[in-house]
Amino acid sequence: MRPRAGCRTKRRRRRRRLKQTKIGSLGTKMSNRVVCREASHAGSWYSASGSQLNAQLEGWLSKAESTIRPARAIIAPHAGYTYCGACAAHAYKQVDPSVTRRVFILGPSHHVPLSRCALSPAEIYRTPLYDLRIDHKVYADLWKTGLFERMSLQTDEDEHSIEMHLPYTAKAMESHKDEFSIVPVLVGALSESKEQEYGKLLSKYLADPSNLFIISSDFCHWGQRFRYTYYDESQGEIYRSIEHLDKMGMGIIEQLDPMSFTNYLKKYRNTICGRHPIGVLLNAVAELRKSGVEMNFSFLNYAQSSECRNWQDSSVSYAAGALIAH
To answer: Sorted alphabetically, which CDD domains does this protein's record hold (predicted)?
Structure first.
């Protein structure tokens, strides 16, 4: 469920802001422009105050248990923190900062039509906690494949699916904050073959224990405003039907079978907004399984923004889970 948008005037002012850094050598100075992506949803979707945000994240994390750490990948929601912050903590609690040196963040494109995946033009991602730097080497290697587009900075700052994971990433990694980089990837409406292609490409990174994959996704968006009102009367109240539908999909994701997940989506049309990032992850796991790598996925928490009881209601579902390699 989406909180109220922030002050648009302020966001426009922040648009394409460039940070100037000086590089000096033997008394000679030159200016090098570093492109920064601003924390454009801070102050509306989550707190813009570093101290307040830190306290909130600590509160949610303190109530979650570390059960399947260290995670190689997590699935976590990207709604406003008042709605999904507590749920997301159950995924981030499985992150081990002592082994993680690179964090891939795969988020769906909500606003821009995209049939492939896209990379950011930024070099620094701002958060109210501290700045995160993009891994230039991995970005260069991905770009060389010819499979990626370059999104504009405006597209990047308008999109929330990646940004909502930045504060949690910063918090989870704070004990090693100078020792890791991020690899944000905006995922378009991929075909099945494209999901397989990107999964195969990214599988070598998923195989590396020093890499963490964050898969950004909410689950069912139910209600007339989402144009989705699937209801199974045998489950009782509407919110129970939604939960049953979501948990059916979650169980299929836990099987780590991309084709079964695709068939589930085709049958029920569940409005899982991160279905393509999830599909890429499942295909990456399938690729590694061919070479004997054992992996398991478990969901740890499920929540809904509200309990739908009539046809005028609406809700968004959230799930948090983690993938481990043996």
So the answer is: MEMO_like
DSSP assignments along 33-84, one per residue: EEEEE--TTBTTTB-S-HHHHHHHHHHHHHTS---SPSPSEEEE--S-HHHH
How far are the Cα atoms of 35, 47, 115, 201 from residue 70, in angstroms, in the given order?
A: 32, 28, 33, 23
Answer whether 66's CB lies under 8 Å from 93's CB: yes
Q: Which helix (H) or strand (E) holds 87?
A: helix 81-92
Strand partners, 119: 150, 185
- pLDDT tens for each residue of the chain, 326 residues long: 444 333 333 344 444 444 433 322 223 333 468 999 999 999 999 999 999 999 999 999 999 999 887 999 999 999 999 999 999 999 999 999 999 999 999 999 999 999 999 999 999 999 999 999 999 999 999 999 999 999 999 999 999 999 999 999 999 999 999 999 999 999 999 999 999 999 999 999 999 999 999 999 999 999 999 999 999 999 999 999 999 999 999 999 999 999 999 999 999 999 999 999 999 999 999 999 999 999 999 999 999 999 999 999 999 999 999 999 98
Give dist(CA 286, CA 255) in Å, integer: 11
Residue with tokens 């898969």: 215
Cβ atoms of 218 and 78 closer than 8 Å? yes
